Amino acid sequence: MSKSGIQFRKAEHARQETDFRCRHCGTMIPFNAPGTRHRNHCPRCLWSLHLDDHPGDRLANCGHLMEPIAISLCADGEWLILHRCCNCHVIHANRAAGDDHELTLMSLAARPLANPPFPLV
Question: How far apart are CA 27 and CA 31, in angstroms?
Fold first, then answer.
């Protein structure tokens, strides 16, 4: 992407510093909510948008919905939410935020136990 294209995308992102609505579940997310300036996903449904080429840059050309597919645990105990783009199938990891819906996080974490790839005896 040209330098002017990068500057345009940064300026476009700067203008979006207002409340926004999740494109998946429709929840209104106030811009001044905790973690919103760094948030890459909806705190209610955990869905995201494919916006980053590198964490935080907001420069990806895709812009499609990203489905939360799994939870990963870092060595320091921090939870990561793995998202897969519904369009280009790229997988990204985003840190779970303190105000994410706890039951939705637990449901995502329990998904492998609910559908094991082998029979449980």
Answer: 12
